[in-house]
Amino acid sequence: MKRSRTVPVVWKRTFVLVLFCACVALGAAVLLKRQTGQLSDSFDKETPKRDSIGTMPPAHSKAAQPEVRPLLVSPQPLSNSVTDADLNYIAARDLLIPAANVTASQLRDTYDQARSEGRRHDAIDIIAPQGTPVVAAADGTVLKLFLSDKGGVTLYELDPSGRYVYYYAHLMRYAEGVVEGKQLRRGDVIAYVGDTGNAGAGNYHLHFAISKISSPRQWSGGDPINPYPLLVRK
User: What is the pLDDT of residue 84?
Assistant: First the structure.
């Protein structure tokens, strides 16, 4: 009796069908991977990351990822210069020479002189004996009493306009009753001439400076104004 060939034929057809499906699935997987890679490369090319100043990092470099830094925002634009209107205002204040018994003929313009660390003086030195009373050059308010490495015992006076600061440095000590917030009248004794800070031992003088406030709530580091012509009326 002959055996039927029906079973082997069915088995062969099933095997071919399964093999075909596996090949199709494998081909689809390979095609999908290529398309995904191309899409990723395309995205990287079209949307490159920028660093904090807008420059492009080198392609395919993980080390070139931008560093995230906080933005520094000034509360308002800083002042860039001192105008004629500023000078006219201060001249109208009729400033006193802030060291008692010192005359205009005794003053020297040291405003542009060089100082250590590449600094410009931006002030004048008024030579006077130790203990000479230092007087308020104009009406104002004691803004800050400060002990500085360079300036020694210092006093910052705010002009009534709120736009200018008068700075007194190398003081021996403050006058009795001088505190921050105290209202000053032109000619009030506020301190005494000394040699504190980097003045040099025995080099008694008053360091006097004027500045225009260049940032809100700032009591130092404003735009400097030469006091010399304002004190000698030139």
Answer: 94
